[in-house]
C-alpha cells in the first residue's frame, strides 16, 4: 500500500464497507469502497488470471487488500469482482447470462475463500448464441454507464485486446460483437515480418487516418496492404511511426467496415484506455460518427456497485 501510517490504516479499515476488484488476464486492480460508493484507496498488481492456478487467486487478492480488512472475528467484508476471475480457467467459473439481458442482472457467483474476513462474489459475463460470442468484464463497465445514463439507447464500443461493440437499449445489452483487432495488431507487430518496420510506440495520426479510409474503402485488400508496409519500409525507408499508424489504421478500419451495423446511425460511447479510445474516436470521425469517450475506472466502480446492489436484492444502483 502507498500509505503505511497506522492511524490511516485503522481509519481505512473502519470506513471500508466493501471491496471492488477488476481481475484481468494480465493484472488485478482493487479498491477499498466507502458505504456511499467513494473509493478510499486503490492497489494493483501483475497477478492476472493468465498467470494463476485456481488455488492462487485468494492469496493474490489478499496480498493487495489485507490492509483494508477488519480483525478476525469482526465479520467478512464483501469483495465484488468482475472480469477473468470468473472464467473457466479462473478462480471459479461464473455462468454467462444470455443476451438480451441487463448487463449485471444475475446473481454473483460465490467463490469459496479460506480467510473468514472476506466473502467473494464474481460478476457473471454475457453470452450470445448466434453469432456465438462472450464477454467478461465489459458488462460491468456497461452497467456503470447505465447507472449514469439509465435511458441510454445506442452502442458502446470497448476497445482493447478483444474490442467489444454492444447494442444497448431499454436497460439491456441487446447484442454484441467481438473483434480481435488488438490481439492481431500485437501478433503482427511482435511475431510477423512487419516487426522490423515497427520499432517504438509512436503512431503517425495522418498515416493512421489514411489507412482507416483505405481499409474501409477496400477491405478485401487488407492482406496485400499489410505486406505493403514491409515493402515500403525496405524500398523507401518508411518511418516507424508511419508504419505503426498504417498498421493500426488498416486493422481498425477493417473492424469498422465489419461493425457498420452497430455504429451507423447510432450514438456511440467509447469506454477504454485513453490512447486507444482516442484512435477509435478519430477513426469513427472519418465516417461522420462523433463518438463520446467515457472514463473507464469510474464506470467500472459504478458497475461493480450496481452488481453488488443486484446481489443484495436492491436492483441496479
Name given to the CATH homologous superfamily of the largest domain: 2-keto-3-deoxy-galactonokinase, C-terminal domain
CATH topology of the largest domain: Nucleotidyltransferase, domain 5
- Rg for CA atoms: 21 Å
**Share of helical residues:** 25-40%
Shape: globular
What proportion strand? 15-25%
Which residues form runs of ≥5 with pLDDT under 50? none
Tally of individual domains: 2
Biggest sheet: strands, sense, closure? 6 strands, mixed
Distance between the termini: 29 Å
Instruction: Please state the average pLDDT score.
Output: 94
Class of the largest domain in CATH? Answer: Alpha Beta
Determine the structural class based on helices, strands and strand pairing: alpha/beta
Please give a structural write-up.
This protein has 317 residues and is α/β, with parallel strands linked by helices. It has 2 domains: 1-125, 2-keto-3-deoxy-galactonokinase, substrate binding domain (Nucleotidyltransferase, domain 5); 137-317, Nucleotidyltransferase, domain 5 (2-Layer Sandwich), CATH 3.30.420. The chain contains 10 helices and 14 strands. It has a 6-stranded mixed beta sheet, with helices on both faces. It has a 5-stranded mixed beta sheet with strand order 12-11-10-13-14, with helices on both faces. It has a 3-stranded mixed beta sheet with strand order 5-8-9, with no helix packed on it. Helix 4 (181-191) packs antiparallel against helix 7, helix 5 packs parallel to helix 7 (240-258) and helix 6 (222-236) packs antiparallel against helix 7. The radius of gyration is 21 Å and the shape is globular. The protein starts with 5 loop residues before the first helix and ends in a 6-residue tail after the last helix.
Amino acid at each position: 500500500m502507498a500509505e503505511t501510517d497506522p492511524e490511516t490504516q485503522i481509519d481505512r479499515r473502519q470506513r471500508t464497507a466493501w471491496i471492488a476488484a477488476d481481475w484481468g488476464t494480465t493484472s488485478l486492480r482493487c479498491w477499498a469502497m466507502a458505504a456511499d460508493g467513494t473509493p478510499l484507496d486503490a492497489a494493483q498488481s501483475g497477478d492476472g488470471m493468465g498467470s494463476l492456478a485456481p488455488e492462487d487467486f485468494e492469496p493474490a487478492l489478499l496480498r493487495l487488500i489485507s490492509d483494508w480488512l477488519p480483525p478476525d472475528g469482526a465479520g467478512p467484508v464483501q469483495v465484488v469482482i468482475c472480469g477473468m476471475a470468473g472464467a473457466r480457467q479462473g478462480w471459479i467459473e461464473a455462468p454467462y447470462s444470455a443476451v438480451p439481458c441487463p448487463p449485471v442482472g444475475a446473481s454473483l457467483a460465490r467463490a469459496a475463500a479460506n480467510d473468514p474476513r472476506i466473502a467473494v462474489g464474481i460478476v457473471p459475463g454475457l453470452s450470445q448464441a448466434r453469432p456465438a460470442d462472450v464477454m467478461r468484464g465489459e458488462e460491468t463497465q456497461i452497467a456503470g454507464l447505465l447507472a449514469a445514463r439509465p435511458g441510454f439507447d445506442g452502442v458502446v464500443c470497448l476497445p482493447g485486446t478483444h474490442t467489444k461493440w454492444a447494442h444497448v437499449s431499454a436497460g439491456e445489452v441487446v447484442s454484441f460483437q467481438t473483434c480481435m483487432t488488438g490481439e492481431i495488431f500485437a501478433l503482427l507487430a511482435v511475431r510477423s515480418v512487419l516487426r522490423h518496420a515497427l520499432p517504438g510506440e509512436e503512431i503517425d495520426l495522418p498515416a493512421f487516418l489514411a489507412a482507416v479510409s483505405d481499409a474501409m474503402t477496400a477491405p478485401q485488400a487488407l492482406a496485400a496492404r499489410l505486406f505493403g508496409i514491409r515493402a515500403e519500409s525496405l524500398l523507401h525507408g518508411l518511418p516507424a511511426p508511419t508504419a505503426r499508424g498504417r498498421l493500426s489504421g488498416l486493422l481498425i478500419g477493417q473492424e469498422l467496415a465489419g461493425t457498420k451495423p452497430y455504429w451507423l446511425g447510432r450514438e456511440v460511447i467509447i469506454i477504454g484506455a485513453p490512447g486507444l479510445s482516442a484512435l477509435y474516436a478519430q477513426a469513427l470521425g472519418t465516417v461522420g460518427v462523433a463518438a463520446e469517450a467515457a472514463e473507464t475506472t469510474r464506470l467500472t466502480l459504478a458497475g461493480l456497485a450496481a452488481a453488488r446492489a443486484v446481489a443484495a436484492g436492491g436492483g441496479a444502483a
